[in-house]
Amino acid sequence: MKNRLKVLRAERDWTQAQLAAELEVSRQTINAIEKGKFDPSLPLAFKAARLFGLSIEDIFQDGTSS
Amino acid sequence: MSNPKTGVKDWAASKAKTTARLGYWTAAWVATMAVAAFGPRLIWDFQTALTILAVLVNLGTGFGMVAATRTYLRTLDELQRKIFLDAGALTLGVGLVCGLSYELLEDIGLISFEPEIAHLVILMCLTFVVGMIAGNRRYR
User: What are the sequence ranges of the domains in chain B?
Assistant: First the structure.
């Protein structure tokens, strides 16, 4: 699964640690999601969407779709 | 402690608290295990009542440690929980397979000594540590 987490974070000038604190996860988890090594659960994806004021589809995209 | 921007409770602080609590319970369990193991011989000369009490305290502390582990798991985030549970599953599998094979070795005469449970515990601890390191490296 692809995601725009890194871009959205950079637009707001947030560090991984700041985003992690907002989402109540570890910085390791934010890093793993940004690198595409770990797919977040639906509740965490919703939480990120709420934080950025976007829909889940605006942040996360199915990596297999064109 | 709260996040100044959102007011949400600091997740890291609550995790640190449950980690410390798990550490205390584990230390208490090891200490009560030592008392139950060495107390009868070295302190109270095999008095049955005291020995039973020591074993019961050790069992109770052990269950406290299990409950503390459960609470600790709940405060981990989803990636950390996955790494922990993957390492736990690996440990369970290795412990079961190697433990039964180790027991079998004596039954079929391939080793002359009686298998020690301590050897299995050491293997399981090492397997868990390796599993945790591998999991953390994978998601680094």
Answer: 1-75, 77-140
